[in-house]
Specification:
Helix content is 40%, strand content 15%. The chain has 386 residues and is α/β, with parallel strands linked by helices. The longest helix has 24 residues. 43% of the residues are buried.
Length: 386
Amino acid sequence: MKDQKKMKKKIIPFNKPKTYDREFLSNFRILKKKSNYSPCGYYTKKCEKWINRNLKTKFSIMTHSCTAALEMAALLLDLKKNDEVIMPSYTFVSTANAFVLRGAKPVFIDINAENLNIDINQIEKAITKKTKAIVIVHYAGMSCEIDKVKKIAKKRKIYLIEDAAHSILAYYKNKPLGSFGDFATLSFHESKNMHCGQGGALLINNQKFIRRAKIIRDKGTNRDEFSKNLVSKYSWVDVGSSFALNEILASFLYPQLEKAKKNTKIRVSIWNSYYRLFKKYMKKGYLDLPTQNDYSQHNGHIFFVIVKNKRKDFINFFEKRGINCIFHYTPLHNSIAGKKFSISKKIINTNDISNRIVRFPIFSDKKILNKKYFKEINFYLEEYFK
């Protein structure tokens, strides 16, 4: 097969971060004219306005990482030693670490096998008198049944946080992810659909936290009020840190936000091409695929399959043919720090699926991930499963 020989010589990366050099350089020239590179400037405000408008959130703060946004949420909740925060074990370490830093205990529960989101049936069983919040992680830009989680949170009078690092421009019942919780956090790390190398945002949907969030962002000072002539001078009024995103990175990010809907459409199209291809191998019983629910509209952030066994052999097979496939998280409840700082409930799916998941390359470039590419993937799958 001629195409196969060509493909072997070409390495398909797992990720290819998008950049808009012309737009960024134009934005940077504007910054030079303004002589303002510090946080909370012109492009930071443009990014925040875009988020508020497109994600239907009340207020947003650009941060230097999603980790920083999670840490701000933990500070805003005034968590104390031994308070408990329920979350899935199958997530990035920052989801838990932000709360551990405040002395709280992550309470890890399982994920469902359909789309690797939190197992809603375990949430209420994990709630105690010490529970202060529930964190839902929209894995791969797919949502759980948020209405059910919100109902539990409201009934038990605990806060809801969306870790939406994967899910910008993904939806639940046609409403943007990030607009449901008291807080939500976004990531603009280079591995995400839109990026600035490293960045994030805190989304606030509970009005009572907005004023204090500005203070915490500004190192515990009322600098924002001073800049608006609401106080005669600014001073240290609360705890806080340097959480803001710098203006140069905001100017890099903004062109990507402007083209976010177009690039998301491309990623979803590529995701759908993968799904159509792998579906026949799922029907033959070789692997499993995520369930696509009517209530959830993903953003093409991650395409993954769940192999039946021998994941290492499967990954090595594709790597030898120039396709960079990789696994994902090591469950936090099994980690050294997880065992030290957390509480774990009955966790079965996480242990199983984390050892069988394989992610395939996905990025918004159809010149690389084209019909020829998918033809080759199909050929390799036939070769592997024969």
